[in-house]
């Protein structure tokens, strides 16, 4: 029995010892000097919380069944692959156990902390919002080294672009005690001083200063050269106290663009080979730097022979005449490009306006000798293209037919670039679309010789609300008005069309009320149908209005009043000759004046009637942006007249009372107005900033048929001030002239003739359609006379000043001007000198 027990004990001990040979604990030491070959029996991931372990195992490249050396290259590669992900703060691979030479591996990973929240300090809220938009940090995402580097880089670049070259960005990670393995990023920013430009130094600009015009022939060549190059740099300007519209901050990418502008300026002056040989930046002090630019001008070139090849439609002589560059002219790359391609009267436009959509013109320098260049114009004419299909996209509010009736490119007709441009202009003039977003997509088919056109528009708010207060006749006058400029009358009884009002048919409905308690009230209504019948651009205008002026007495028996009731009906027609910019407008109007014991007029008691006919011929080609025109002109000449009642009457007008004289008002009124828009600097297209010169002249005269009756006390003109005179009962037109008080240039008995001259410089500060903003500098002159015989067009009152305008679609034009009137007005104290004027809905 004892022998049997001893045998069993011996067998158990043998089994135990064999098991020890097969199982090695994780504490088994690894001999790094003698790597051992193993088969991978298993791979497990530990320590992770959010990531997928299967994906991580696959990422290591370690697979069950692989034969590897431990230690060896496979383990090293697996560790490096995990580190390369940037997701872990700790990576550790250990041998868990070995069974029958199969290694079971454990990979311990410590995930990087995740973002719980982040804060900014040291900057404004608007700057925080801008950086957040660019960085896009996501709560719950891992905070990696790349996260920190990217955030710091974006914030730094943001402020460098704004001129803060000494900006400091520091990012701290603070553990969030409320969440496991989460951190709070504290982004601390110190902008320091904005770096501005103290001075710009040029070298090598030895010749450009001698390229003089008549107006600068006496200037020092070195100073002239420096001035020309500095003006060529649009956004890199030295620090000056008077710089208002251009800052002197240094922005590197703008500096690079301005270096190209310098070379472009040299090319304009004939220096084709000019190039910049070096540029450098040196600190001047803590707030400013100096820029150094070295230039190699090269020699000046001239055009010699310009030849044409490939042109069959137009003779070379015609193309050379359109190009307008002659032998011996200074080489000017900008002028060549404009005359050849970009100018509305360019050679390319000549082809494009005759259907040659696929045409192309390439200028090639074929020979250069000394300072002369021979240019060969290689013309590819291609087929004449016809318009196949025209469509509109983006008109979410305006009906297709309202937009399409302004389209000048008709399917089946020859393609003309000028008609495409005219269509874009007409879309802008509607006032329903953002002028900056108007575009056209071309889909040409050269094989068929056709093109599809899709006009792209973007709706903008066009309705307007007027809420204002003004001062006139010693009282405050409040105004409330609404204008629905894209109204739909036919849907007025359709409940589904109210969004909030029926719209999309291009009609205009205006309601306006003015009041100053019992003293003054005015109510008006106007409706305009621009396409009467829907087939031709013939407009219909109807208007009704009623005005009441009293002494303010509450008791009816004590109240005096001056009441005006009127109505008008007008028809307009777009003409085709001399061109379709012309319109003819005719209007019949009637006004009834009811005067009850009113002491402020020619007679206290009575009634007067004014039945008149008005015709106006106008031409409006200004544009392309109707809010800020850069080119074109606007002219209008009109005459308004009544029947000559007195010529058919046997009454002695020298003896009858005024109530009888003016029971039926008679007169003839003539007016002229002309405005010219000229782009002085910048693009004429209206899609970028440009300095624009507005020159304007206007004049008017009120005549009479019967010398015994004399001028009418009604109608006429009142001149001076902001043009927003609080009320107008006598039918007189209010003409603004800044720098003087309201109505101060009007004779006591009224103005029967006037003239006015305006010169205005305009510069846009913002062309955003939600708020178009521009600054102005103006000079004006004008006067009014009672006696037409004393009219002297040069006996005028002069003024000058500055102002700003802002146009918001829902409100219209607003602005404020400061003007200084240079001439005293006899009998009116304080009428001239320094004057502020508020502008509502007008542009003088």
- Please report the total strand number as a whole number: 35
| Quaternary assembly | single chain
* CATH topology descriptor of the largest domain: Porin
Total helices: the number is 13
- Strand order in the sheet with the most strands: 18-19-20-21-22-23-24-25-26-27-28-31-32-33-34-35
CATH superfamily of the largest domain: membrane protein fhac: a member of the omp85/tpsb transporter family
Strand content: 35-45%
Low-confidence stretches: 1-27
The gyration radius over C-alpha positions equals 41 Å
Rounded average pLDDT: 86
How would you describe the shape?
extended
Largest sheet: 16 strands, antiparallel
Number of folding domains? Answer: 6
- Helix amount: 10-25%
Corresponding CATH architecture of the largest domain: Beta Barrel
> What structural class results from the helix and strand content?
alpha+beta
What does this structure look like?
With 844 residues, the chain is of the alpha+beta class. The protein folds into 6 domains: 22-111, Roll (Ubiquitin-like (UB roll)); 114-190, Ubiquitin-like (UB roll); 196-296, Ubiquitin-like (UB roll); 302-380, membrane protein fhac (Ubiquitin-like (UB roll)), CATH 3.10.20.310; 386-456, Ubiquitin-like (UB roll) (Roll); 632-844, Beta Barrel (Porin). It is built from 13 helices and 35 strands. Strands 18-19-20-21-22-23-24-25-26-27-28-31-32-33-34-35 form a 16-stranded antiparallel beta sheet, with no helix packed on it. It has a 5-stranded mixed beta sheet with strand order 1-4-5-2-3. A hairpin with a 7-residue loop joins strand 27 (668-682) and strand 28. Helix 6 (221-232) crosses helix 7 (252-268). The longest helix has 21 residues, at 2-22. The chain is extended, with a radius of gyration of 41 Å. The N and C termini lie far apart (130 Å).
């Amino acid at each position: 029995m004892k022998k049997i027990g001893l045998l069993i004990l011996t067998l158990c001990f043998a089994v135990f010892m064999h098991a020890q040979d097969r199982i090695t604990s994780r504490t088994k030491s690894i001999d790094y000097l003698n790597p051992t070959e193993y088969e991978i029996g298993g791979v497990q991931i530990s320590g992770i919380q959010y990531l997928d372990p299967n994906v991580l195992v696959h990422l290591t490249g370690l697979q069950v069944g692989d034969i590897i050396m431990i230690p060896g290259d496979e383990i090293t590669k697996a560790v490096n692959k995990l580190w390369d992900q940037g997701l872990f703060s700790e990576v550790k691979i250990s041998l868990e156990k070995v069974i029958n030479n199969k290694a079971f591996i454990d990979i311990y990973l410590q995930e990087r902390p995740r973002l719980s929240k982040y804060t900014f300090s040291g900057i404004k809220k608007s700057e925080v919002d801008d950086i957040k938009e660019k960085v896009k940090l996501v709560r719950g995402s891992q905070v990696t080294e790349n996260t920190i580097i990217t955030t710091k880089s974006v914030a730094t670049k943001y402020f460098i672009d704004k001129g803060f070259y000494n900006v400091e960005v520091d990012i701290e990670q603070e553990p969030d005690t409320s969440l496991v393995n989460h951190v709070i990023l504290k982004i601390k920013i110190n902008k320091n001083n904005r770096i501005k430009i103290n001075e710009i130094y040029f070298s090598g600009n030895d010749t450009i200063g001698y390229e003089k015009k008549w107006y600068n022939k006496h200037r020092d060549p070195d100073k002239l050269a420096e001035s020309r190059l500095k003006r060529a740099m649009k956004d890199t300007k030295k620090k000056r106290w008077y710089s208002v519209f251009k800052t002197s901050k240094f922005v590197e990418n703008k500096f690079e663009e301005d270096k190209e502008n310098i070379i472009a300026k040299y090319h304009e002056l004939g220096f084709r080979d000019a190039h910049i040989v070096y540029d450098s930046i040196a600190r001047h002090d803590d707030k400013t730097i100096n820029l150094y630019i070295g230039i190699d001008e090269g020699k000046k070139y001239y055009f010699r022979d310009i030849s044409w090849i490939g042109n069959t439609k137009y003779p070379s002589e015609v193309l050379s005449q359109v190009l307008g560059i002659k032998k011996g002219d200074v080489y000017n790359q900008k002028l060549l490009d404009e005359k050849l391609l970009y100018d509305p009267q360019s050679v390319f436009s000549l082809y494009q306006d005759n259907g040659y959509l696929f045409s192309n013109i390439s200028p090639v320098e074929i020979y250069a000798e000394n300072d002369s260049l021979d240019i060969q114009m290689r013309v590819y004419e291609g087929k004449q293209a016809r318009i196949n299909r025209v469509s509109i996209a983006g008109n979410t509010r305006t009906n297709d037919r309202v937009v399409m009736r302004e389209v000048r490119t008709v399917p089946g007709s020859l393609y003309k670039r000028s008609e495409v441009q005219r269509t874009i202009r007409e879309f802008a003039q509607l006032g329903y679309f953002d002028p900056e977003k108007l575009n056209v997509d071309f889909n040409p088919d050269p094989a068929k010789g056709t093109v599809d056109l899709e006009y792209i528009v973007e709706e903008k708010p066009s309705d307007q609300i007027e809420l204002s207060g003004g001062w006139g006749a010693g009282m405050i006058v409040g105004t409330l008005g609404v204008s629905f400029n894209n109204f739909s009358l036919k849907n007025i009884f359709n409940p589904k069309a109210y969004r909030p009002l029926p719209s999309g048919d291009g009609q205009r409905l205006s309601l306006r009320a003015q009041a100053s308690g019992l003293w003054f009230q005015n109510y008006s209504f106007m409706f305009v149908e621009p396409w009467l019948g829907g087939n031709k651009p013939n407009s219909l205008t109807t208007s009704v209005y009623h005005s009441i002026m009293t002494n303010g007495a509450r008791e009816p028996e004590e109240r005096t009043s001056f009441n005006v009731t009127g109505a008008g009906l007008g028809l307009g027609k777009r003409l085709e000759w001399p061109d379709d910019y012309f319109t003819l407008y005719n209007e019949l109007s009637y006004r009834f004046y009811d005067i009850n014991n009113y002491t402020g007029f020619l007679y206290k008691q009575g009634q007067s009637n004014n039945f008149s006919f008005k015709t106006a011929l106008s031409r409006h080609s200004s544009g392309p942006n109707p809010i800020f025109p850069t080119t074109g002109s606007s002219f209008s000449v009109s005459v308004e007249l009544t029947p000559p009642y007195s010529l058919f009457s046997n009454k002695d007008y020298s003896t009858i009372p005024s109530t009888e004289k003016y029971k039926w008002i008679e007169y003839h009124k003539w007016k002229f107005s002309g405005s010219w828009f000229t782009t002085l600097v910048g693009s004429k297209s209206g899609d970028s900033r440009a300095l624009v010169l507005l020159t304007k002249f206007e004049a008017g005269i009120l005549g009479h048929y019967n010398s015994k009756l004399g001028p009418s006390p009604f109608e006429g003109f009142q001149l001076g001030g902001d043009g927003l005179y609080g009320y107008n009962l006598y039918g007189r037109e209010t003409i603004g002239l800044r720098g003087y008080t309201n109505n101060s240039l009007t004779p006591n008995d009224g103005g029967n003739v006037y003239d006015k001259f305006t010169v205005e410089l305009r510069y846009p500060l913002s062309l955003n359609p939600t708020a178009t903003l521009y600054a102005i500098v103006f000079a004006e002159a004008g006067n009014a006379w009672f006696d037409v015989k004393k009219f002297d067009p040069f006996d005028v009152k002069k003024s000058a000043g500055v102002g700003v305008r802002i146009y918001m679609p829902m409100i219209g034009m607003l602005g404020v001007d400061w003007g200084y009137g240079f001439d005293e007005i006899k009998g009116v104290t304080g009428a001239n000198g320094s004057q502020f004027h508020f502008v509502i809905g007008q542009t003088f």
